[in-house]
């Protein structure tokens, strides 16, 4: 019997209600996390994405076993030239949907990305060993 992989994709039909028009969320799946390159300074970089007509990029340091003892870090980069102020945060959930880590209340904190501020980082966000637990990873 062959294995079947189910991929979940959000599909929006019509425009969202007014209260949600200025909200965006993205799900990133780092498959094979346990085999990512742990070389110090190595970053995993998914393809850039568009949000609010601006181009963005997420970078992951998968947690090399150096100074910070295997802590994974995430960085959000603003690639567009125009200035934008956004509220943003990171949420890591288990397979069951339980929140493992949440960076902040995204409705109360904002950051302005411009020529001086191009990135926002969550250094030492979560221990690599926590991510590798079975209840967070689902078959990689």
Main pleated sheet: 4 strands, antiparallel
Number of strands: 8
- Share of helix, binned: under 10%
Distance between the termini: 20 Å
Average pLDDT number: 76
Number of helices: 1
Looking across the biggest beta sheet, what order are the strands in? 1-2-3-8
Q: Name the overall outline.
A: globular
Question: Can you tell me the residue ranges where pLDDT is under 50 for at least 5 consecutive residues?
Answer: 1-5
- Rg, please? 17 Å
Strand content: 25-35%
Order of helices and strands: EEEEEEEEH
Structural class: mainly beta
Q: What descriptive keywords fit this protein?
A:
single chain; 140 residues; mainly beta; 4-stranded antiparallel β-sheet; 1 helix; 8 strands; globular
Can you walk through the features of this model?
About 5% of the residues lie in helices and about 30% in strands. With about 140 residues, it is mainly beta. A four-stranded antiparallel beta sheet has the order 1-2-3-8. Mean pLDDT is about 75; it is low at about 1-5.
Question: Brief overview, please?
Answer:
By secondary structure, this protein is mostly beta strands.
